[in-house]
Amino acid sequence: YIGQMATALAFTLLTLKFSLLGGCTFDDGPGPCDYHQDLYDDFDWVHVSAQEPHYLPPELPQGSYMIVISSDHDPGEKTRLQLPAMKENDTHCIDFSYLLYSKNGANPGTLNILVRVNKGPLANPIWNITGCTGKDWLRAELAVSTFWPNEYQVIFEAEVSDGRNGYIAIDDIQVLSYPCDKSPHFLRLGDVEVNAGQNATFQCIATGRDAVNNKLWLQRRNGEDIPVAQTKNINHRRFAATFKLQEVTKTDQDLYRCVTQSERGSGVSNFAQLIVREPPRPIAPPQLLGVGPTYLLIQLNANSIIGDGPIILKEVEYRMTSGTWTETHAVNAPTYKLWHLDPDTEYEIRVLLTRPGEGGTGQPGPPLITRTKCAEPMRTPKTLKIAEIQARHIAVDWESLGYNITRCHTFNVTICYHYFCGHNESKADCLDMDPKAPQHVVDHLPPYTNVSLKMILTNPEGRKESEETIIQTDEDGMPKCYYGNYV
Ligand SMILES: *[C@@H]1O[C@H](CO)[C@@H](O)[C@H](O)[C@H]1NC(C)=O
Ligand SMILES: *[C@@H]1O[C@H](CO)[C@@H](O)[C@H](O)[C@H]1NC(C)=O
Ligand SMILES: *[C@@H]1O[C@H](CO)[C@@H](O)[C@H](O)[C@H]1NC(C)=O
Ligand SMILES: *[C@@H]1O[C@H](CO)[C@@H](O)[C@H](O)[C@H]1NC(C)=O
Ligand SMILES: *[C@@H]1O[C@H](CO)[C@@H](O)[C@H](O)[C@H]1NC(C)=O
Ligand SMILES: *[C@@H]1O[C@H](CO)[C@@H](O)[C@H](O)[C@H]1NC(C)=O
Ligand SMILES: *[C@@H]1O[C@H](CO)[C@@H](O)[C@H](O)[C@H]1NC(C)=O
Does the CB atom of residue 358 touch ligand 3 within 6 A? Predict the structure, then answer.
């Protein structure tokens, strides 16, 4: 044990000699050490001096140090003593003595160590102790890795307990530019950027032995603590701790740092940023530039977006408004032609944008809902079928005309007929059919006459005619033709 002590002493002397950056023994109060009482706390730490008499219980240590006398304050009141800011790229170990003491062993309050970065929020303590620890000084060390140009300020905060009983004291602070002996040091924690909705992972790597029993957590600047998900020893002097934030949103965007804590001290990393990017989405629907029976020419219209860039992929997603399937095509020009569409059909077209990283595809933008034009009818209707022949009428029917023939939802079916009576007398007429009833009776015909019939399919884009069919009406003894109607 004595050997160990000697080694420790030699080690301390060595580190003192080569790397003492600052500190305070409070012989003349905190001022000469450039330590400041916080102006916005509830009260100040009291300086006790070896030279001046004070009214502390005799069992408390002699000497000069800073103390909080709990009975002088209300429960929950706090005081903070701020160390000068540390800025340089360095590994700092801050060593200090503390005690929390009350005669009857009651809790005097809590000693919190805060590390404030760039004069930002105080955040949660990186180390804290509460309850009576006894009348003798204890030592703890803080491993604070600092990264220029950020400013790190260590703050000793005492909080008075409900019992308002006893003393909280600190002394002999040493700031060493040297790794701590007992608390692990974190390597620089890098920023993490993810797309909203993804899981974010921070990996903290620390050096220092015997970290197995340390408490480890990820501290958010707003005060939230995230428990460790996994720890792994890289080698006997280095370990990695993984922290997971599930399916993050913009509200998780903040600064985070790694903290370890044991009775003997704490280690704290730099603050790293969690950057949550919103996958991009177009503000406006695509614009229609041109339309045909089987194509739609669109302008993606995706220059104005909601969310974050850069955009690495643009896609057009389209479907029939009445259909269930959706097709998606990558597009690398400002305009895109959708081919092989159905005529006279309504389509819904949206633009999808993607930024880098997993989950980088945003919601589709607002839709363009538009129709293709009609196409010319596919083919001539099949020849008419003759259902019945009489002297005065002929009944005809035809195959029902599906969309795949009409290629338009609005179309007319017309039956035209003509015949001659005598040598120069003729009659010709066309009748619009009800497209839903594929049959018709052509009546008021003369008997024993060749009647020529044909069918015409018309839509706004064109017409197709069937072959003519010539049918001879039956005889019924009446004259073939006369002027006026055949009844
Ligand atoms: C601190 O380290 C960073 C990165 O290693 C370097 O860019 C910077 O110049 C250093 N600053 C100082 C003051 O040493
Ligand atoms: C230390 O502070 C944390 C908040 O960061 C709190 O949850 C914990 O109870 C405190 N521990 C002690 C011993 O006061
Ligand atoms: C996030 O992690 C949870 C649990 O590990 C998992 O179930 C989920 O699928 C992950 N989410 C994404 C977007 O990867
Ligand atoms: C048109 O569609 C019907 C079914 O709706 C089908 O039986 C027929 O073969 C199709 N005709 C053509 C020319 O595609
Ligand atoms: C056709 O018949 C009408 C009488 O029905 C007659 O007036 C006319 O001259 C005839 N035309 C020819 C070219 O024979
Ligand atoms: C109808 O036409 C056919 C063939 O062209 C012919 O043989 C027949 O005599 C005609 N019938 C009448 C009543 O003119
Ligand atoms: C169909 O018939 C109606 C009425 O006869 C007419 O107004 C319309 O233009 C026709 N449509 C086509 C495509 O020919």
Answer: no
The token pair that represents 141 in the structure block: 């060390």
pTM over 0.85: no
> Any bridge partners for residue 273, and if so which?
255
The residue behind tokens 């000497």 is 63
Cα of 150 from ligand 1 centre, angstroms: 11
**Alpha carbon of 83 to ligand 1 centroid (Å):** 23
Ligand lying nearest the CA atom of residue 447? 6
Q: Distance from the CA of 414 to the center of ligand 6, in angstroms?
A: 25
What stretches of 14-89 adopt beta strand conformation (E)?
20-24, 36-37, 46-48, 65-69, 78-82
pLDDT digits (tens, 9 = 90+) for 344-387: 999 999 999 999 999 999 999 999 999 999 999 988 777 788 88
pLDDT at 397: 87
> Ligand 1 within 6 A of 89 CB?
yes
Q: Which atom of ligand 6 is nearest to the CA of 450?
A: 1
Q: How far is the CA of 302 from the centre of ligand 3 (A)?
A: 30
Q: What is the pLDDT of residue 181?
A: 85
- Residue 228: exposed, middle, or buried by beta-carbon count in 10 A (0-12, 13-18, 19+)? middle
Q: Which ligand is nearest to the CA of 360?
A: 3
Choice among 98-102, 320-324, 363-367 with the minimum mean pLDDT? 320-324
| H/E element, 17 | helix 2-19
Residue predicted with more confidence, 247 or 483: 247
Q: What is the DSSP string of 391-415?
A: SS-EEEE-----HHHH-SSS-EEEE
Q: Is any ligand 4 atom within 6 A of the Cβ of residue 233? A: no
Residue owning the nearest CA to atom 6 of ligand 7:
412
Tokens of 167: 């003393």
Place of tokens 């995230």: 226
> How far from chain centre, in Å, is Cα 146?
31
What percentage of the chain exceeds 90 in pLDDT?
Answer: 59
Q: What CA–CA distances, in Å, run from 16 to 6, 65, 112, 194, 235?
A: 15, 20, 26, 44, 29
Protein residue with least CA distance to atom 10, ligand 7 = 412
**Which residue(s) pair with 47 in the sheet?**
66
- At 358 the pLDDT is 93
Residues 144-169 have pLDDT tens digits of: 988 888 999 999 999 999 988 899 99
Do residues 251 and 214 make contact, with C-beta atoms less than 8 angstroms apart? Answer: no
pLDDT surpasses 50 at 487: no
The residue whose two tokens read 């009818």 is 377
Q: Which residues line ligand 7 (CB under 6 A)?
A: 411-412, 432, 458-460
Contact of 182 with 141, CB cutoff 8 Å: yes
* Spacing of C-alpha 264 from chain mean position: 40
**Closest atom, ligand 7, to C-alpha of 459:** 13
* 24 sits in which H/E element: strand 20-24
